[in-house]
Amino acid sequence: MSFLKKSLANDKLPLKNRLVFPPMATSESNEDGKVSKGLIDYYDEL
């Protein structure tokens, strides 16, 4: 599974590796569904 650590790129989105972290229910988004500071902080800690 070493291929997961290799970079992958297309015209729009270069990826450093092939690992993707799915969105999780954090209850940190704004009421309108947009990204909040709390959500950014949550993912920044990972």
UniProtKB/TrEMBL annotation:
Record-linked InterPro entries: Aldolase_TIM (IPR013785)
Domain of life the protein comes from: Bacteria
Stored SUPFAM superfamilies: FMN-linked oxidoreductases
Name this polypeptide is given: Uncharacterized protein
Origin organism lineage: Bacteria, Bacillati, Bacillota, Clostridia, Lachnospirales
